[in-house]
Write a structure and sequence with these properties.
The complex is a heterodimer of chains A (114) and B (114).
Chain A (H helix, E strand, L loop, with lengths): L3 E4 L2 E4 L5 E7 L5 E7 L6 E7 L2 E4 L7 E4 L5 E6 L8 E8 L9 E2 L3 E5 L1
Parallel strand pairs in A: 2-11
Antiparallel strand pairs in A: 1-3, 3-8, 4-5, 4-9, 5-6, 7-8, 9-10, 9-11
Chain B lengths: L2 E5 L2 E5 L4 E8 L6 E6 L5 E7 L5 E3 L5 E5 L4 E6 L8 E8 L7 E3 L3 E6 L1
Parallel strand pairs in B: 2-11
Antiparallel strand pairs in B: 1-3, 3-8, 4-5, 4-9, 6-7, 7-8, 9-10, 9-11
The chains are: A mainly beta (114), B mainly beta (114).
């Protein structure tokens, strides 16, 4: 059964046109993460939510925003996508963010910017 | 800051041969180390994790990894490769600064030939 679900699987947007990616989870986990993975690179953490508390990574561009309206859902908003934002976006969850926890990943959304 | 280095962006083996994927870590404190696997067009899945309970860690699909403090290594091995093992493998370390986020290596693509 799918536990972390990302929609859509593929998203195409135009340069500068706002786009929203969605993630939902059925695990009731407290922490939700968004990672950006460019081709042949390591996943890079953009931000995470611990419950309702938003935590931005220092080097995440202002162009990237996130919303978590409830425990189950989290959204990634890209206000003005550039060509360099084309990547796989991975959503992940964990129960409480402690040291030895594993992360549960969704299948990702592949974003193309034309 | 914690970091991991994966040696070799691509590793090619024949079916039935030994698989060895290298990972070295940098950490000022005992680390929590992980191996994740990513199959094409999918999210990441945990293979195994080291949390100081035992230096030899067994994971899913016949993989195991050995933590060697003296070598600061956490190499991933499997005695006999299967075609289905072809995927991208990421070593990761749990950061111990601030929120303990997961920091990934750049990945190693495993190619298995018949």
């Amino acid at each position: 059964d799918a536990m972390v679900i990302q929609n859509p699987r593929y998203q195409v947007t135009q340069f500068g046109k706002p786009v929203t990616l969605s993630c939902s989870q059925t695990l009731n986990h407290n922490v939700m993460y968004w990672y950006q993975q460019k081709s042949s690179q390591a996943p890079k953490l953009l931000f995470h939510y611990y419950d309702k508390d938003f935590n931005n990574e220092a080097d995440t561009p202002d162009n990237f925003q996130s919303r978590r309206p409830n425990t189950s859902f989290c959204f990634l908003d890209i206000r003005s996508p550039g060509l360099g934002d084309a990547a796989m976006y991975l959503c992940a969850t964990s129960r409480s963010g402690t040291e030895n926890e594993k992360l549960f990943f969704g299948s990702g959304t592949q974003l193309s910017v034309l | 800051a914690q970091s991991v280095t994966q040696l070799g962006s691509h590793v090619s083996v024949s079916e039935g041969a030994l698989v060895l994927l290298r990972c070295n870590y940098s950490s000022s404190v005992p680390p929590y180390l992980f191996w994740y696997v990513q199959y094409p067009n999918q999210g990441l899945q945990l293979l195994l994790k080291y949390t100081s309970a035992a230096t030899l860690v067994k994971g899913i699909n016949g993989f195991e990894a050995e933590f060697k403090k003296s070598e600061t290594s956490f190499h991933l091995t499997k005695p006999s490769a299967h075609m289905s093992d072809a995927a991208e493998y990421f070593c990761a370390v749990r950061s111990n600064t601030g929120f303990q986020k997961l920091v990934f290596g750049t990945g190693t693509r495993l190619l298995v030939s018949p």
